[in-house]
Specification:
By secondary structure, this protein is mainly beta. The chain contains three helices and 18 strands. The strands form four sheets. Strands 9, 10, 12, 13, 15, 16 and 18 form a seven-stranded mixed β-sheet that branches.
Length: 271
């Protein structure tokens, strides 16, 4: 899974000399999306930078593609090869049903109250696997609190216990709430950051890619989003598709709902 611009690199040799190396990108229907003349850095190595960003847009959109490489020698003979790849430049979409209260509503009696377990529930949409989810907490004064919790290989249908008071799985719950079960309600807000498994491929020597995946700390509260979806008749998958459209400036008349809060709120309270 590729993010950002990337390098096509080809090793091509001939008993005479290699005259040219070209790359044609084809979509899943076999239609030409782009074409490149690769440049030689030495007698055997040929490369081209693909999908270089122009302002806000990537010329090759998210999706699955085939690259067709044609090598021509100085006598006009050609050799052809093909390889498949996938582009993903869109961060994950998280629809969160718990916690479900905006961070500003610390004293709201409808705020989620967690007992000895802190859990997350929701739905994630992404073309890639979601590699990492990081949760950080702030107290009612806005100060960072405790140790972040990190979940790996996150399921798209999210229903997980992040940590608990009595059987800690991470240094998260007690670092926020404290070690005394009688501390009473403690209001906090939570920032959640998602990262997918897409990687940068700008160094041909690193075949597994480098860097972090597409990441975001923006998500939607379930009730707020579905209220907007009912009014607009969109489905959650449409919201993710609109996020992809927004990356490429295609002039679509569709637009995302208003930005959601970047933090959710709740209380840790030993019941």
């Amino acid at each position: 899974m590729i993010k950002g611009d990337f390098i096509f690199a080809v090793q091509a040799t001939d008993d005479t000399s290699v005259a040219s190396v070209t790359a044609t990108i084809l979509d899943s229907e076999g239609r030409q999306v782009d074409f490149f003349d690769l440049k030689s850095s030495d007698s055997n190595s040929w490369r081209a930078v693909i999908n270089r960003r122009d302002g806000h847009d990537y010329p090759v959109k998210d999706g699955s593609y085939t690259v067709r490489i044609i090598v021509k020698d100085s006598s006009g003979k050609t050799t052809r090869g093909e390889s498949a790849f996938t582009i993903d430049n869109t961060p994950p979409l998280l629809i969160l049903s718990r916690p479900s209260t905006a961070a500003a509503a610390y004293t709201d009696p409808k705020a989620d109250i967690f007992g000895d377990k802190f859990s997350l529930k929701g739905q994630i949409y992404d073309k890639s696997d979601v590699e990492k989810l990081t949760i950080t907490a702030k107290d009612a004064a806005g100060n960072p609190k405790g140790s972040p919790a990190v979940l790996y290989n996150v399921p798209k249908s999210l229903n997980v216990t992040v940590d608990s008071f009595f059987t800690p799985m991470q240094s998260f719950y007690r670092s926020i709430y404290g070690d005394t079960a009688a501390n009473g309600p403690q209001p906090y807000s939570y920032t959640i950051t998602l990262s997918d498994s897409a990687r940068e491929y700008t160094d041909p020597s690193k075949t597994t890619g480098t860097g972090e995946g597409n990441s975001t700390s923006t998500y939607y509260l379930y009730n707020d989003l579905y209220r907007m979806l009912n009014e607009s008749r969109y489905k959650p998958a449409d919201v993710y598709a609109i996020m992809q459209v927004g990356m490429y400036g295609t002039g679509s008349e569709r637009s995302l709902p208003p930005p959601p809060p970047k933090e959710v709120g709740g209380q840790l309270k030993k019941l």
